[in-house]
TrEMBL record:
Its EC number is 3.5.1.28. Gene3D superfamilies: Peptidoglycan recognition protein-like (3.40.80.10). This is N-acetylmuramoyl-L-alanine amidase. One of its GO terms (molecular function) is N-acetylmuramoyl-L-alanine amidase activity. Residues 17-179 form the N-acetylmuramoyl-L-alanine amidase domain. The keyword Cell wall biogenesis/degradation applies. It comes from Butyricimonas virosa. Keywords: Cell wall biogenesis/degradation, Hydrolase.
């Protein structure tokens, strides 16, 4: 995997058309990890690319490890909203936004787990944690998706002065993503290899 003209080049990368009018990023030193909260990677990428939506991201990584690139890395994406990091406001101004195909929080109904859009999630894709003395359920992240994210982050670190890799919830109090199911320790261990 390489970066050429601010775009990823690899067999598992598909470039998509996103015609959002945005400015160039003067500096890119942060990667922000999100979950899509959507049905699948392609539907989420298509939504983020639509001209009539105010949000965007640089990449969407599917559960299979396929990568969809919406914007070049030198163009500002609208993924962080009201946010701050290390005393700097508007994290969109200095970051790359990566969306992971993941439904986020789940709810239990009978013996099953369901997304907010009523898709049933199989038990082997459910991460359970306890919050405030109560079980909480989240869509898990498959290994192949985390490995693709690690590979992307390595390549970005080689090509840009990346100093921070954070979750959306680290830069604003109004968001939960990538959520408690995201394997931060494993991610950092793989990134060091």
């Amino acid at each position: 995997m390489e970066v050429e003209n601010h775009k990823l080049v690899a067999p598992n990368v598909k470039q998509m058309h996103c015609n959002k009018k945005s400015s160039l990023l003067p500096v890119t030193d942060t990667i922000v990890i999100h979950y899509t909260g959507g049905g699948n990677a392609m539907s989420s990428a298509q939504l983020l690319a639509r001209a009539d939506t105010s949000v965007s991201a640089h990449l969407v990584i599917a559960r299979s490890g396929q990568i969809l690139q919406l914007l070049p890395f030198n163009v500002k994406a609208w993924h962080a909203g009201y946010s701050s990091l290390e005393g700097r406001q508007n994290v969109n101004n200095f970051s790359i936004g990566i969306e992971l195909d993941n439904a986020g929080p789940l709810h239990r109904r009978g013996q099953g787990w369901f997304t907010w859009f009523n898709k049933q999630i199989m038990p082997d894709e459910v991460f359970t944690t306890v919050e405030k003395g109560r079980a909480s359920y989240w869509h898990s992240y498959p290994s192949v998706q985390i490995e693709a994210l690690v590979e992307v982050c390595r390549v970005l670190k080689r090509n840009y002065p990346i100093r921070y890799i954070v979750g959306h919830s680290d830069i604003t109090s109004r968001k939960l993503d990538p959520g408690p199911a995201f394997p931060w320790e494993r991610f950092h261990d793989l990134l060091k290899e």
